[in-house]
Model the fold of this input.
Amino acid sequence: MTAIKCDLETKIRKANLRPTRQRIALANLLFSGGNRHITAETLHSEALEKGVKVSLATIYNNLHHFTEAGLLREVVVDASKSYFDTNTSDHHHFFFEEDGYLEDISAGHINVKDIPDIPVGTTISSVDVIIRVRKNTE
Amino acid sequence: MTAIKCDLETKIRKANLRPTRQRIALANLLFSGGNRHITAETLHSEALEKGVKVSLATIYNNLHHFTEAGLLREVVVDASKSYFDTNTSDHHHFFFEEDGYLEDISAGHINVKDIPDIPVGTTISSVDVIIRVRKNTE
DNA sequence: ATTTGTGCAAATCGTTTGCATCTGA
DNA sequence: TCAGATGCAAACGATTTGCACAAAT
Done:
């Protein structure tokens, strides 16, 4: 427990953030398992379930702080809510439309070739591939 | 003018929609030029500018009707607002992050290869490639 | 002591909905 | 006639903000 906490504290400190009780708890939920895709709401209820008292405002604050610090990556797949991905490396996504579930696709599994020229004075900030998947209607 | 109107009316009729004054006016704004990327707000103000009286609710209704009818395609690039594309063919997008501007990339200009297997019982509903572009900071 | 974070409730923004009224077939 | 469209205003859900209080350095 101390080990994990220490790791998280260092991680948080490196991001120039103060390791507060709530922040550590959220980091713990986010970064202790494998890769995760969460929304503010799911993280909030998860926190409450585990007895961590945090307000939604704090959830949003920290999701944004973590994102700015490069600890999270925002994934835009749904017009109505924001997803955050704990996998910040270069990769893509399956999006299961019915249940709003995301799954990583490692960058190596998709070849994006022949990207057209971009306007002078601009830089590519990311190339996002989203494969939307639906259950068969039979 | 009649020619255009007639074309639009047929288009609307084929979509099983009634060619009402507002609907025709909106279709005219959407489908008379080349390919366009619009939001509810931009379409609304454009309509008002041209003296077409339409409520926002009607704009939303019709954007959705047109989308369901396959006359428009929704593009999810920005968590805070929805874009609709008059180009419904298979293609991708540049997204200029600073000004929220979209630009088409024809499907032929990007090769997406080696798409991984999708779960049994599911079908790919679309493969969206978004190249996010930012102005250089110099 | 000073700066940063937190929680609450109110405010905001895009979008949707309910309902009375109008309009096209 | 009458289903389908429209407009308005109210409702909505996700996100944000303002501000008083609490915690970290």
In short: Chain B touches chain A at residues 74, 76-79, 81-82, 94, 96-97, 105, 109-116, 118-119, 121-136 (CB under 8 Å). Residues 17-18, 20, 22-23, 53-58, 61-62, 79-80 of chain B lie near DNA strand D (CB under 10 Å from a C1'). The CA atoms of residues 18 and 84 of chain B lie 21 Å apart. The helical segments of chain B are 2-14, 21-31, 40-49, 56-68.
